[in-house]
Amino acid sequence: xxxxxxxxxxxxxxxxxxxxxxxxxxxxxxxxxxxxxxxxxxxxxxxxxxxxxxxxxxxxxxxxxxxxxxxxxxxxxxxxxxxxxxxxxxxxxxxxxxxxxxxxxxxxxxxxxxxxxxxxxxxxxxxxxxxxxxxxxxxxxxxxxxxxxxxxxxxxxxx
Length: 159
Hints:
Elements: H1 2-8, H2 12-27, E1 40-44, E2 48-54, E3 63-68, E4 71-78, E5 95-102, E6 107-117, E7 120-127
Antiparallel strand pairs: 1-2, 2-7, 3-4, 4-5, 6-7
């Protein structure tokens, strides 16, 4: 009985998703829309901000980095392999992309380096000197002056 019920029941969201994809496919030459945003990881330490961008199959010539108007612009073109036209199913994305990362005022636009290794773009952004933590030296002046206080009897202890 349970298996018969399972075969008759359909997830309404599954049906809606299929209809949505079918509608998109008619506007995109029979293909589903492709994601064209390169995934990014950001982290920082006291001296730098680090950006890592996944760019599989790309070379340094395929990527353009620009620091402009307080943003780090990552632009590029991922070229499709020649056999891509023969694929009957392909979920990878190809073509142009761009990504902008808003930079804090503490970033030194002149202290940016980048390298591409094993499909990952590594970007290092230096922080301005005034943004870096400054160690403050504490001067030792010797022993603090001791203040001797005379003990006074409490009000109720007079006698």
